[in-house]
């Protein structure tokens, strides 16, 4: 197992096989008990992949990443029963925590040009406003939690964008792409849960989510801080 985790190509193949299996289970089997067996290995594999490949020396940065992956794992298990209001509410909170921990992992103390952030922030903010306005009448009691969750997503993608000045280009692009994929997945599952069904939603939600957390983890492992 260790020789697979230490090999970039083999790890990628194994991860996407695990993700594909879960997607097939999702579209063809009952949630209980099958998704509780097929879904956790997605994050568990990424957790092991990160643990055995990270060269991060800063303990806090490593802790934030481990806590983020742990929250993703817990949220994945809870949200399987998303038709239960209590489970849905807890999963929203747990995923929000995961995004907070990732934001802390991406944060840095290097000065940046605020002008370069404005156009990007406007695009992301417009996207967030569009999703919230689309779901405004459907969210009801979940309006405030959903608004806070999207606000944290906005912060997360901004922190991912600001890594450009401190890390190498490859790591920066992988993480940013991963966060974008994750936001697509998050938006789709919110629309599906509170508004209406979407074409190929069961496949695309998990595909975007899996690719999102994979690219984020891969990008963090590959990170080289600029001198």
From TrEMBL:
Taxonomic lineage from the root: Bacteria, Pseudomonadati, Bacteroidota, Flavobacteriia, Flavobacteriales
Protein name: Lysoplasmalogenase family protein
InterPro entries for this protein: TMEM86B-like
Localisation: Membrane
Record-linked Pfam families: YhhN
Keyword 4Fe-4S appears in the UniProt entry: no
Keywords: Membrane, Transmembrane, Transmembrane helix
Membrane-spanning segments: 12-28, 34-51, 63-80, 86-102, 114-136, 142-161, 173-191, 203-221
Sequence similarity: Belongs to the TMEM86 family.
Organism: Flavivirga jejuensis
Membrane topology: Multi-pass membrane protein
């Amino acid at each position: 197992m260790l020789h697979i985790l230490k090999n970039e190509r083999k790890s990628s193949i194994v991860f996407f096989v695990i993700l594909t299996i879960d997607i097939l289970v999702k579209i063809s089997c009952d949630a209980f008990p099958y998704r509780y067996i097929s879904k956790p290995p997605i994050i568990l594999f990424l957790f092991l992949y990160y643990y055995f490949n990270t060269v991060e020396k800063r303990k806090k940065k490593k802790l934030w990443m481990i806590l983020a992956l742990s929250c993703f794992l817990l949220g994945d298990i809870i949200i399987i029963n998303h038709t239960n209001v209590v489970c849905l509410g807890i999963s929203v909170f747990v995923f929000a925590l995961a995004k907070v921990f990732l934001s802390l992992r991406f944060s840095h103390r290097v000065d940046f040009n605020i002008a370069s952030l404005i156009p990007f922030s406007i695009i992301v903010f417009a996207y967030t406003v569009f999703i919230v306005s689309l779901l405004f009448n459907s969210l009801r009691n979940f309006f405030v939690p959903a608004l806070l969750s999207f606000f944290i997503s906005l912060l997360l993608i901004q922190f991912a964008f600001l890594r450009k000045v401190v890390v190498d280009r490859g790591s920066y692009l992988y993480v940013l792409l991963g966060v974008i994929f994750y936001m697509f997945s998050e938006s789709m599952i919110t629309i599906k849960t509170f508004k209406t069904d979407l074409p190929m939603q069961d496949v695309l939600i998990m595909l975007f989510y899996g690719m999102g957390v994979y690219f984020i983890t891969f990008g963090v492992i590959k990170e080289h801080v600029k001198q």
